[in-house]
Design goal:
Nucleoside Triphosphate Pyrophosphohydrolase, single chain, Endonuclease III, domain 1, 347 residues, six-stranded mixed β-sheet, alpha+beta
Length: 347
């Protein structure tokens, strides 16, 4: 283990397992199965999405796509529609593509080894390790954002996690902390996830109540009053400001949507036209929306165009409001549709 991060609490793995048994999460629906399809689905959903949201959407997604086969044979539109509202839609596209590859090229069975799992769309090293541990009992280390935070704080690791070399040092440490048996591995891995998600959170709870943390007296970040400084990530994501103009055709309690290209923002999803040649004599300006993505801050200007004479074609079509809400639409479109439904009596 590298000298600069060789400072973890003694018997860390066993103590974390004990903490998990007493204080960890035990009733999450994806914990009740070792089926790799369900484990994989939960891991993908939990990326960039809060647990409370996943608790609602996970069973709903499984009701719609109960098996790998049902997901693999569905259309992308169907998958995106079910994913609608959870954001980061590349996850849904990768989820669909991954299911297709596993179904057609792996005989419907997820591979057991990390080296094979990471070749699949949307599965990185840490996600592959989680699947390998929970579904197949493999001895693999995870290192998602929560775990990076836990290990950095406990050891006082000052490496810059925007640099691959420093991140690799943390990977090396994570691998050497692993317990031995398959049962210990599952409990330990779940414990790391729970500890980082519920206790060693960005605004750490140890700042107000150290008694909750079994490692409070040994945590380097706590000892040095640097909890909020670690982990370090020097490279900041630059957020780009963009303005979109939406023209929202409305006619006889129907709304017109267009399907976006298969690349760019909201690829393959339904949104409102950003150009409209055939305008009506009347329009209504809605309040602008601000929608923040990972790298972009969107200001969306919205003009409702009343009575536009547009025909269904390969790109766009008319929907009732209820039909539109069932399509693969991003959150700003959903919010706009709900606003239009409230205004329908006056349009």
């Amino acid at each position: 283990m590298p000298k600069e991060i060789n400072r973890f609490p003694k018997h860390f793995a066993l103590r974390l397992i004990d903490w998990q048994k007493k204080s960890g999460r035990h009733d999450l629906p994806w914990q009740k199965s070792t089926d790799p399809y369900r484990v994989w689905l939960s891991e993908i959903m939990l990326q960039q999405t809060q647990v409370a949201t996943v608790l609602e959407r996970y069973p709903r997604f499984l009701e719609r796509f109960p098996t790998l086969k049902s997901l693999a044979l569905a259309s992308q539109d169907e998958v995106l529609a079910e994913w609608s509202g959870m954001g980061y839609y590349s996850r849904a596209r990768n989820l669909h593509r991954c299911a297709q590859i596993v179904w057609h090229e792996w005989g419907g069975q997820f591979p057991e080894h990390v080296d094979d799992l990471i070749t699949l769309p949307g599965i990185g090293r840490s996600t592959a390790a989680a699947i390998a541990v929970f579904s197949f009992g493999k001895k693999e280390a995870i290192l998602d954002g929560n775990v990076k935070r836990v290990l950095s704080r406990l050891s006082g690791f000052e490496g810059d996690l925007s640099k691959s070399g420093d991140t690799q040092l943390l990977w090396d440490a994570a691998e050497q902390l692993l317990p031995e048996t398959a049962q210990q591995l599952r409990s330990y891995t779940q414990g790391l996830m729970d500890f980082g998600a519920t206790l060693c959170v960005p605004k750490a709870k140890c700042l107000s109540d150290s008694q909750q943390c079994p490692f409070a007296l040994e945590c380097k970040a706590k000892q040095e009053k640097r909890v909020l400084e670690l982990p370090r990530k020097m490279k900041r994501v630059k957020v780009q400001d963009l303005t979109l103009e939406w023209y929202i055709p409305v006619l006889a309690q129907k709304v017109y949507l267009q399907k976006r290209d298969e690349s760019g923002i909201w690829a393959g999803m339904w949104t409102f036209p950003e150009q409209l040649n055939k305008k009506s004599n009347s329009s209504l300006e809605l309040e602008p929306l601000v929608h923040v993505l990972t790298h972009r801050r969107l200001q969306i200007l919205r003009t409702v165009v009343l009575g536009a004479k547009l025909k269904d074609d390969a790109v766009g079509r008319w929907f009732t409001y209820e039909e539109a809400l069932e399509q693969a639409i991003p959150k700003p479109v959903k919010d706009t549709l709900k606003s239009l439904m409230k205004l329908a009596v006056t349009l």
